[in-house]
Amino acid sequence: KLHSDLDKGVGTVKYTLSGDGAGTVFTIDETTGDIHAIRSLDREEKPFYTLRAQAVDVDTKKPLEPESEFIIKVQDINDNEPKFLDGPYVASVPEMSPVGAYVLQVKATDADDPTYGNSARVVYSILQGQPYFSIDPKTGVIRTALPNMDREVKEQYQVLIQAKDMGGQLGGLAGTTTVNITLTDVNDNPPRFPKSIFHLKVPETSHVGSAIGRIRAVDPDFGKNAEIEYNIVPGDGGNLFDITTDEYTQEGVIKLKKPLDFETKKAYTFKVEASNLHLDHRFHSVGPFKDTATVKINVLDMDEPPVFSKPMYTMEVYEDTPVGTIIGAVTAQDLDAGSSSVRYFMDWKNDVDSYFTIDATEGTIATNELLDRESTAQYNFSIIASKVSNPLLTSKVNVIINVLDVNEFPPEISVPYETSVCENAKPGQVIQTITAADKDLSPAGQRFSFRLSIEASNKPNFTVHDYRNNTAGIETRRNGYSRRQQELYFLPIVIEDSSYPVQSSTNTLTIRVCRCDSDGTIQSCNVEAIFLPVGLSTGALIAILLCIVILLVIVVLYVALRRQKKKDTLMTSKEDIRDNVIHYDDEGGGEEDTQAFDIGALRNPKVIEDNKIRRDIKPDTLRFTRHRPPAEDNTDIRDFINQRLQENDVDPSAPPYDSLATYAYEGNGSVAESLSSIDSVTTEADQDYDYLSDWGPRFKILADMFGEESYNPDKVT
């Protein structure tokens, strides 16, 4: 109930409600302020509600007091029973467990409020499953209540568990669940044979290794605890039979280890022991976990094929034995009580079997063709024996016939048929060890002997030393051999065997003389090597050839350099390619050097021979007057150039150029123009050299030469 102090009870105040559940779960009387629940409440669904209430003026709709908040808590009652959320349960416990052995713990939950009263206090109890199991009322732990519960008696148990709230008091709510408990197996039972004697009947024709019967011991345990091992107790028949365990059925399978024969023994008796493989030490006090039974086996008589006296026959015969010669016999007999007659015949497989025949009644084997050991040394075929009373019953045996050798082939030398000896060999040196081979089948102890032939015994070159172990050594008898005198030696060797009749052969061994070093290592056995100079090795020959090649290379290089030098005299400079009478290759000293070039040598060739002035000596300073030289000087230079030009024109070996332009023209662009006398006027007196003084200090010496002194033609050289 809500009430405001401003409410005088005259209807001027109106109450409003808002918040959780307002209008849906709770409602308020606007005049009195009473709050009512309009539907049932569930604490487990919502334990409390938060609401807000306010009082307002009916006329002005204005709040008379601030809004207030309050909480409505739902009071719990016991309306939910305990529930097992994980049920139903499945558990297991080993059989023969003691009392109080832990099985399982169950748990029930109650949705009621555990903080209010006993609505959520749960107590556990067993409704079904006693007296085998018990449960703790508070924790819900299930334990065994009886000792030695046997799985073989009862394996499955269904226990009904109840959980009740209100502490188990009257009026409390309860819930139940089912627990299925299984007793697991332990090896608490030994195997037992259901009977003490087992009888088996086995035909005498049973094959070795075949199963002839089964026996079984019963073990009530399960799984690996029921696995049984069977063993035959040593005694009668234990060496003829064997027993194994079938892993699927746990039966003992009896197998035959050796053949049975009714005529030899008709019955066998032995004991079989069955025991567990996996024992539990807790139950050793119960007794031995094994059992024993007797097995009696009766052998049944069967109509059997004939039996040969031997599992295999081996015979020998000499080669070239006459046809029809008996070399042996086979024997088979019927061991049955009726003792039927036996017939023999050959098992034809190929043409080799036609070399022999067999007597159908007696079983004797004879040759049918001539035998050759060198062609076939051994024959292998089968003989079949059958009963006359029942031809379908047959048996087979292998016959091996070895063909013995008759000494008909002489021994021969084994490879090699050729050997070598060093030129520097010493007397008594072994140069080769030889052996012999014989096409005949050599019997044990046969020996070969070696010796020189009679004609070779008188030659003092080589000898044969018989080691008496079927080998012999070739020894030298001379001190050194010469290839120049004889390159090959042929040594006849006689070899004999020890068989009868004695066979011998003469074999020729070729011995080649070779050049060796001091250690005896062969260096050369070729015929061409004989003609090489004595003492000249291969390295020396290579050195000589190398020297010759080097000399040839030097000669070729020398000739090439000479040709290149001759060419360079004709082409000294890339810019000055011409044939000059006098070649000047020195560099001038500039404008101050007035004696770098002597033009007088070109004016009169005769003066060159007479004067012979050296160019490496500085000439005296020449001073010229303004007088011009006679016209004859210019004529001499022109004649000289024309003469040289004509010589080069008719000379086929001369270069295809002349030097006329070289001396006649000194180039363009000079302020002083050409100073050469070639293009000068006829007389030098017409020249005026006063202008040289106007060219500056660099031309001072030249102006003094031509200006101060008068021209004197006698001073010109």
UniProtKB/TrEMBL annotation:
One GO biological process term = cell-cell junction assembly
How the protein sits in the membrane?
A: Single-pass type I membrane protein
Task: Respond yes or no to whether keyword S-adenosyl-L-methionine is given for this record.
Answer: no
Its predominant location is membrane
Question: Which Gene Ontology terms cover its molecular function?
Answer: beta-catenin binding; cadherin binding; calcium ion binding
Keywords of the record, alphabetical order, are: Calcium, Cell adhesion, Cell membrane, Cleavage on pair of basic residues, Glycoprotein, Membrane, Metal-binding, Phosphoprotein, Repeat, Signal, Transmembrane, Transmembrane helix
Tree of life domain: Eukaryota
Limits of the Cadherin domain: 4-84, 85-193, 194-308, 309-413, 413-531
Pfam families reported for this sequence: CADH_Y-type_LIR, Cadherin
User: By its UniProt entry, which InterPro entries does this protein fall under?
Assistant: Cadherin, Cadherin-like_dom, Cadherin-like_sf, Cadherin_CS, Cadherin_Y-type_LIR, Catenin-bd_sf
Residue intervals passing through the bilayer: 530-561
The record, for CDD domains, names:
Cadherin_repeat (cd11304)
User: A Gene Ontology CC term for this entry?
Assistant: adherens junction
The subcellular localization recorded is: Cell membrane
Q: What does the UniProt function comment say about this protein?
A: Cadherins are calcium-dependent cell adhesion proteins. They preferentially interact with themselves in a homophilic manner in connecting cells; cadherins may thus contribute to the sorting of heterogeneous cell types.
User: How is this protein named in the record?
Assistant: Cadherin-12
